[in-house]
Amino acid sequence: MENYQTLLAAVTPTEGHADEVSATAPAVATREVFDPATGASIGLAPVHTTADLDAAVERAVAAQPAWAARSDDERRATLHRVADAIEAAAEPLAELLSREQGKPLNGPNARFEVQACANWLRATAETPLPTEVVVDDGETYAELHYRPVGVVGVISPWNWPMMIAIWQIGPALRMGNTVVAKPSEYTTLSGLALIAVMNQELPDGVLGVVAGAGDLGAALVARPEFGKIMFTGSTATGRRIIESSAGNLTRLTLELGGNDAGIVLPDVDPAAIAEGLFWGAFINTGQTCAAMKRLYVHDSVYDEVCEALRTVAAQMPMGVGLDERNVLGPLQNRMQFDVVDRLVETAKAGGARVLLGGEPDRAAVGNFYPTTLVADIDPHDPLVQEEQFGPALPIIRYTDLDEAIALANEVEVGLGASVWSADRDRAREVAVRLEAGTVWINSHGGVHPMIPFGGVKQSGYGLEFGVEGLKSVSVPQVLNG
């Protein structure tokens, strides 16, 4: 595939023409999509209807038995071919992603995300899922198998629109399910483009897609044909999904909001951990569910950690994603810009000290919010208590470790957390006291295709990745005898 325009043309319908990506309605309405960095028009995205959803679901239901009838080896081989197709289209996919989402091409951003899609598919294909013998005592013999759940509905977010979609789609396909996906309305073209490339290698109807706003997502989760819904997004939307799907007893995996805490113990070398702290908080310009969103630092190293982090942060270039020099980009949408701006202004009004940033150009065309570090902030300030989901990190001073742990645990969400220390054993002692689905030691936010990932409290439920992720898109069946 030569360039992103070729890719865009393949997924953009024109008024009065069929949408070839989902092959649903004879005519598809469109809306214009704009670059969050420049305001420039990127292209047209389809706006599907419930009739389009009906058709996509019908095709997925019809295709599922034949896909499930294929052997596990056949499905695994297909996923490898899909990964090959993504790699062949990697550069246009990355450019489209950068233009629509805003993230730079370089750093842990657009090119990284596209390659992660291929890598994750390969890992999903190679994850072993052997038959489990649960009893074999000479009198009783029982095996536990995992069968397809049927049709899986996937609703993916705008922050990592390709990679998170793959996290959901890949395991579902591996286990013999068909999928109907709905990309975020903020990153529709990226989602459509990825699925168009994947469908070069998948049988017809196995992976469908519909594009639209929240009302279309609500219609999707209410459909009785779905045996499973996978959603990554806000806690508020997660609650609505639970309510809408309850009548169908639909299985759910919900990866919801986070407000991850990092705790720095007094034995650290501030200069040695500064870059890790930075990327833990500011990966994808802070627009990551499991990014570090509040940092608790012991008083004895507080000033040194603040200065080391400020030095690293000040050197990280922010700008238009297509500029190869940049590693930070704009916020994807103005709504999120306003959230970050409000929280930082509230912190400033409350007496917090801004170490870096905090003064956006609100009249600028792009949604750029400067990299911002806020020190000496009250631990109950809204910037600490609410998920900012952007490039602003509050740094809270503590003297009593028990108090810091209590503050870290007092919020309603629990996706991830981290502990930073020169003593790994001491860090682990602190880690097990934190209420989070994952606790990293001397890093934050890294994921691995073989390590289960999921939240606690109001960060949702269900596990993704590895063997547990495959089981989550399956139904268990016991063979007894």
TrEMBL record:
Keywords: Oxidoreductase. Residues 30-473 form the Aldehyde dehydrogenase domain. GO terms for molecular function: oxidoreductase activity, acting on the aldehyde or oxo group of donors, NAD or NADP as acceptor. The keyword Metal-binding does not apply. SUPFAM superfamilies: ALDH-like. InterPro entries: Ald_DH/histidinol_DH, Ald_DH_C, Ald_DH_CS_CYS, Ald_DH_CS_GLU, Ald_DH_N, Aldehyde_DH_dom, LUC3-like. The active site is at 255. CDD domains: ALDH_AldA-AAD23400. Belongs to the aldehyde dehydrogenase family. This is Aldehyde dehydrogenase family protein. It comes from Agromyces tardus. The lineage of its organism: Bacteria, Bacillati, Actinomycetota, Actinomycetes, Micrococcales.
